[in-house]
Amino acid sequence: MYKVRFYNEAPIIIVERRDESVVCTVVEEGLDGKPWFYDIKWYLKKQEYPENASA
To answer: Which top-level group of life is the source organism from (predicted)?
Structure first.
C-alpha cells in the first residue's frame, strides 16, 4: 500500500534483481546449529517462546 499526496501522482517502484536470496545474505545459521526458523516453528507448535529466544 502506497500513500500518495495527489490523485494524479503515481508511486515510483524500483525492482532490483539479485543473484542470491535475501534470506541467504541476511540470516546465518546460529551458534547452536539450529536453522534460522527454529524459534518460529517452536512457537507455532507449543505457543511459547524458547528460553533462549531473543526479543
So the answer is: Eukaryota
